Structures are given as C-alpha cells and as structure tokens.
Amino acid sequence: MTKEVQMSIKMEVALRDQFMAVAANHQRPPAQIICELMRLYIADSETPNALTAETILKARRGDEVFQASSASDLFEQLGI
After folding, report:
1. d(CA 73, CA 75)
2. 8: which DSSP letter?
3. 48 CB contacts (<8 Å, ≥6 apart)?
4. Fewer CB atoms inside 10 Å of the end CB: C or N, the chain?
C-alpha cells in the first residue's frame, strides 16, 4: 500500500480556479490529475531509452544527419 502525504503549493488564484473548473467538468479529482502530471514530468526528465540515446550520439557525431533545402527535399532523401 502506498503512503499518501499532503502537499501545499502556491499559485495564482485564476490558475487554480481554472484548473478546479476543468477537473470538475471532467469529473476527476484534482489530486489525481496533479499526480498524473507529476509522473509525466518525472518520466520526461529521466534518462532516454537506448534507441534515443543512440540517436542523440549519432546526431552529435553528424551520422545520419540530413541537409535539405525544403521539406519535400528532406522527404525525398528519406524515401517518404
């Protein structure tokens, strides 16, 4: 069982009111939405997966980097 704690944050009154209205409109508890947003924020901050890390390294080395004069030129080079 996960232990729950309370958390207090400061924010603009208008932002809080808008958030509470949207949560109520979607019939979702505001705390549940905040927890989901926190999990997403944490996941986005974590180390990239192996494929992403490899792609970043290739880009830094200049491997598999395409130079194109336009979007259609790029699509043509990529075979799309």
Report:
1. 5
2. -
3. 56
4. N
In a domain, 2, yes or no: no
Tally the domains of the chain. 2
Exposure string for 18-45, b = 16+ CB within 10 A, e = fewer: eeeeebeeeeeeeeeeeeeeeeeeeeee
Distance, CA of 38 to CA of 5 (rounded, Å): 14
Do 52 and 70 lie in one domain? The reply is: yes
pTM of the complete model: 0.56
* Tokens coding 1: 């069982």
Dist. CA 13–CA 21, nearest whole Å: 12
State which residues form the domain around 57.
48-80
Give 45-78 pLDDT, tens digit per residue. Answer: 887 888 888 988 998 998 888 788 999 998 898 8
Question: Residue 71 is encoded by which pair of tokens?
Answer: 């979007």
